[in-house]
Amino acid sequence: MSGDRIGSRALRAAALGLGLWATTGIAAAHATTACPGNPNALGTSRTLVVDPTEHPRIGTMQYRETLPLKDHEVVLTFDDGPLPPHSNQVLQILASECVKATFFIIGRMAHQFPEGVRRVRAGGHTIGTHSEDHPLHFNKMSPERIRQQIDDGIKHTAEALGDPSAVAPFFRVPGLRRGEVMEDYLVSKGIQHWSADFPADDWLHISSDQVYSRAISRIEAKGRGILLLHDIQARTVAALPRILQTLKARGYRIVHVVPATPDRPKTPTEPREWYLHPPAASVAMAHWPRVPQFLFVSTGTLPGPALSDSDLHGGKLPAPDRSRTTSEPLQTATPFHAALNADNNQLALPVPAENIFARPEKSAALSYGVSPVVMPVSQRPAASRLRDPHGGVRAENGPRLIPGSQPIAQPNLLAPSTVIQR
């Protein structure tokens, strides 16, 4: 066996071992300095292990939370594959830079090109799913259809790999057409829904230079996050090497994301790390805290003041001159005098009579807007009898009725009263 063939096999074995090493998260930081054939490769700086059930929705394009990345850390994701030859070219570019990414596979494509899915696994990348047929009206489909699209996509991807455990519980909805039914179903199955933090717009009819510039400018604007790409586009294949080289030159690092398993515990994180721009503790709140709703189990009453607490003794007030010992009776009028009960030293106030709060205008207001009472025509000035400015129909000596209004007839309502004479 020739030395060149032995060296080639050794390189392939080293590359495969490196991929498995990064996938398990052991010493992933060494990937940058151990890329075969490319000492200046971007590499994969570390592996992030996440629990999909703890943070079921990520990506600031649609959600509040995103992956707990540090400054200048980027996660690469690719949608819609596999589709030869473009998907294979993307895998070759990533391998040349020793970069690990997450691929969201379409079930129909996995069924048609199973070898392409196995290539993704052989490269040490994470495999998520992207529905069965990539419908762009996901948020308008029936719940049954949504569940079928998700389940069939997972099924055909697992069949292509021959191992259901090789499919990560990661899902991205086509066109980012999220919906509550879909999100609830993913949570029930323990699947994490991935949006993104910035796209490169490589699904549009733009040049590879535009794909490159949009990807880099948006990464620079946020400083870290999830980049959304498509491995089925020729423009993406052309732009990807420049994207990786620029990220390397500007000090960015690639993070590989894998799901937690019983043998692979999650990476410890703090809750605030899952926000792209978490508020500082010293920053004032933008809104007042929400007032809690209290539930009162009982409504007790407070006691009124006792007579002994005042200067009133036996219904009498002491004279203004404190030196005098005599007292003058308290001059009160009914009903207040009847409320004083000095025998039991308790104060009981009477219920006020209803006529105290009576308003003379109340009875006249009942008919407002229905059948207003007006002054007879004979008593009005001559100018007001010529024409009604509101267009109302008026009898000679009767009230004016507003067009379209009729008196409301309901039981227990007071009849409209006459005009109050003042």
Description:
The chain is an alpha/beta fold and 422 residues long. It has a domain at 11-266: Glycoside hydrolase/deacetylase (TIM Barrel), CATH 3.20.20. The chain contains 9 helices and 16 strands. The chain has helices spanning 3-24, 86-96, 107-112, 114-122, 143-161, 180-188, 208-222, 234-249, 361-365; strands spanning 46-50, 57-58, 73-79, 102-105, 126-129, 170-171, 192-194, 198-199, 225-230, 253-259, 316-318, 327-329, 340-341, 346-347, 393-394, 400-401. The strands form 5 sheets. Strands 1, 3, 4, 5, 8, 9 and 10 form a 7-stranded parallel sheet that branches. Strand 8 (198-199), helix 7 and strand 9 (225-230) form a beta-alpha-beta unit. Helix 4 (114-122) crosses helix 5 (143-161). Residues 1-32, 367-373, 388-396 and 401-422 have low confidence and may be disordered.
